[in-house]
Structures are given as structure tokens and as C-alpha cells.
Design goal:
about 140 residues, mainly alpha
């Protein structure tokens, strides 16, 4: 059975994201969440710039349009908000609980994709979203 390339990429992303929470928690020992996030973001910026230098054809840069800048800037704002509050939660909370609550964003993404992108909401998506919400209640309950 051959997996689609995007599925492989998504699985790799999931693995990296799983490690991210644990290693970030270790990196926050003895420093504030704000400083930890700042240092991490500098490293992310360096790694992404190196990746872009290796993977992006310089000619492609000319194809960026105003609408691309607008949506990617908005994405940067939402990413920054997510990271800021994720690190604040991670600093004082349990990794598993914080990570699971953060993954509740899947439910938000499903709803926004349906509303803004007109993606279909299937029974499979509804069931998955309900299971995520149920998991949030089970794990986050103290």
C-alpha cells in the first residue's frame, strides 16, 4: 500500500510536533516562557531560512503576490499568538495536557476550513472532532 506524499509529510510533522513539546519543556527550565519562546523562534527562523535557501528556486520569489503576503502575514500573527500562549501554558502545565488541548485546534481548523474554504465536513470528520473533544475532557479533567 503506497501512502500519498502529503500523508507522509503530515506523519513526519506529527512526530516533530510530539518531540517539540517535550524538548521545549526541558528548554524552559530556569527561564521564563517568554525568553524560551524568543530563543526558540530565533532558531526556527535560522532553520527555515537555511531550508528556503536549499529548497526554494529564487525565480519563484517573483511569483509572490500581495494576497500571498496578506494571508501569510495573518498566518504569522495567528502562529505567534498560538506560540505565545502555548509556551505560557507549557511552562506551568503538564506536557501531555497542554499538547492535547493545543491539538483541539484541529476542531477549529475543521470548522474554519468548512466556513472559509468550503471544505466538506464528513461523518468521519465529525466523529474525529467529537473524539478529540472527548479526549480533551478526559485528559484535562483534574
Amino acid at each position: 500500500m503506497k501512502m500519498e506524499r502529503w500523508v507522509v509529510y503530515a506523519i513526519i510533522s506529527m512526530l516533530f510536533a510530539g518531540f517539540t513539546s517535550v524538548v521545549a519543556k526541558q528548554g524552559l527550565v530556569g527561564i521564563s516562557a517568554e525568553l524560551g519562546l524568543t530563543v526558540r523562534t530565533i532558531f526556527v527562523c535560522i532553520f527555515v531560512l537555511v531550508f528556503a535557501a536549499l529548497a526554494v528556486d529564487p525565480a519563484e520569489i517573483k511569483s509572490i503576490q500581495k494576497v500571498n503576503y496578506m494571508w501569510l502575514a495573518f498566518s504569522a500573527v495567528t502562529t505567534a499568538g498560538s506560540w505565545i500562549f502555548y509556551y505560557k501554558a507549557l511552562k506551568v502545565g503538564d506536557v501531555a495536557t497542554v499538547a492535547l488541548i493545543d491539538k483541539g485546534s484541529v476542531v477549529i481548523a475543521i470548522l474554519l476550513a468548512w466556513w472559509l474554504l468550503k471544505e466538506a465536513i464528513t461523518l468521519r470528520l465529525i466523529l474525529g472532532a467529537l473524539l478529540i473533544v472527548a479526549g480533551l475532557f478526559v485528559i484535562a479533567k483534574k
